[in-house]
Amino acid sequence: MIGLSAERLERLRERALAGPDTPVGWRCLAYCRAALEHAGDPIILRRAAGLAGTILNFPPSVVDDELIVGSHMFGERPGVDGSLEFPEFASYLFEPPGDRLRELLSGTDLGEAQRQTVLELIGRPSLFTGEPWSPGQPDEVRLALEATVFMGGGWCTNHSVRDYAKVLRVGFEGIVAEIDARRSALACDDPDRLEELTFLRSASTVAHAAAGIGRRHAVGARALARRCNDADRRAELRAIAKACDRVPARPARTLREAVQALWFAHTITCCEDHINANSIGRIDQILEPYYQADLAAGRITREAALDLITYLWLKLYRDYDVQQAVLGGLRPDGGDATNEVTYLCLEATQRLGLVRCLSVRLHRRAPRELVERATDLLSDGGGIPFFFNDEAIIPALTDKGIPLEEARDYAVIGCVEITIPGRANPHAVSHNMNLAKCLELALHNGWDPRTGAQVGPETGLLAEFPSAGAVFEAYARQVEHFARCGVFVSNAGQLQQQHSAPLPYLSILTEDCIARGRDVTSGGARYNYHSCSAIGIPNVADSLAAMETVVFSDRKLTLEALRQLLLVNFDGAEAERKLLLRAPKYGNDVEEVDRWAGAVAEHYCRTMSAHRTHYGGSFHAHLFSFVWHVDPFGRTTGALPDGRRAGDPLAYSLSPTQGRDEKGVTALMRSLARIPHHLAAGSSSAIIELSPRFFEGDGKRKFVSLLEGAVDLGIGQMQFNVVTAERLVQAQEDPERYGNVVVRVSGFSQRFASIGKDLQDHIIARTKHEA
Q1: Cβ-contact 693, 641 below 8 angstroms
Q2: Using CA atoms, how far apart are residues 161 and 157, in angstroms rounded to an integer?
Q3: Weakest-pLDDT range from 74-78, 112-116, 160-164, 633-637
Q4: Domain final position from 130, 149, 168
């Protein structure tokens, strides 16, 4: 294999930064044809036929300079609205009269006859979505949703880590054989097996199509080789064709075949339900056997392996990227999983200078070299890698009944969501609870000052509460009420998806679905659970601590006076607001405040653990806010006793409210350690802001010690921004000049210039620790 020269790398890098430019309209056409041809069939067969039709007809992509070929099989082009490509997510386009549909079709690469096929679906949107299924929405759920106490849908669209190792190990032809064996074992006259036969038929359709994707690219590569005048590139094209002849239809034998098969399998994943948060999993564990086999056989050098990882990283690159890949951690047998591919992935990321969604799993026996190499990458800025603590997450998973060996094999989805790769349907961010709003409702006896509606249960008049503990009890009752509403929405959404949006490709790459003959949306996965988010924990803790200090201890405000201040959003009461702001705040190693934060987190985790999903699974807590702490939850939450004004952002996940952590990063870590991370099986999350000056002198050594100490303390997850507030203000005011500043936003990194001003202001206001 010819080495990846600096010039070639720069060309590929510039192409990745420019964004994708793939044919538009082919996926939409395939799904429309499937809807018409299978109109009388179950929705799962229509969806399988649409995916198979896309795989079989999308133009193969073999691009100059690339050694790993293929592209995402839906149209992506700067300035093009991509909603048309996923008609199952945009069925409204097919409502009469279809003017927007015609407008979008004019921007595709489809011919007139192909456009007419699409237009035949006007007036028939249900062919994409199946029949609606709903038990109806209880009034208490409707009121809670209108007040934005919580939101969610219960679906498992995107947000997966599929069993890519299986594709490399047995190939899609092996998966076809597994499906055929299961089908042959079922009697067609058994009435209890009809749904299984339908599912297996859809699975077979998809697996057969997937097996052919490589061979179609092999044909394309050979055609290019015949016309190529450059001898080196001609040899490369022939090598591409040889690899694609084999994978992903048959098992991979070499690292090159493994990387190519992995990429093909991932493009099919994203074709089924889009790129967003469909993640790779434990990439170093997936690829290491092929790398070692190549080394032993003398087929590869370390430098050539680094090139292959770099080619894959370029294929995966997105400006907004939550295609998570995770490194390190423990093996299922309890040994350290760090290997040479772990370091190759870190090196490829640093080599490219592009932000890839990359995380590192740590534990108490993690190699010091891994922590040091990860620190080198992190100190460059951009917020990668970020870190997950096996010492907290594995116990959280085993507490949910997942066997230890499989819990040790966990992977990360998208931002921070935890799954067992290829074995679980985790329903990530199934619903999200605004705990700060629950506190606001408790302070007003279940009444919402913003809407004037009685949204929550009556839990007592604020003026009659004798202590901060009594306020917490009223708050807890609000949370428990809305938890039941959230569980309803999650379970109802799961049933709706089962009837309208099955996922046959995800199913064939999820253990037990084929053996059970059930789609992943119908309970086919080995583990079926829902993951739900708690937002506003630091605000609730700061508010309870402020009440404990200002009202109940110092008696500088009465409860009724406080309630009136909240109703007028502290208007004309800046002195009283400053009293509340000066009260102890979470994030400063103040035990009495941190105790409240721990109690709020524990109550949420245990409340959700008491509920069950439709298929008997459990609810796993995310202590994670994504960007919803700004909008809608921050925007729709009124003034709080912590001194926060109505509409201001809430705290990000478990990070202190912006600007309130004043005692340094060590104090912040001690506050984080008082949260029961071991109860959050969906993961916790915290972003810690560091000035670049933190890494000066022996700063890197101190940071390594900080990380290792955080692991010992049981902190579940940590993300770090390395940037100054001054540079962010420059990027906000002059995005053309400072447009390449990349920051950790909320479980993902993105160019600062591309995010909204409200979120920019929130990030600027976070404390930037220097020591």
Answers
A1: no
A2: 12
A3: 74-78
A4: 149
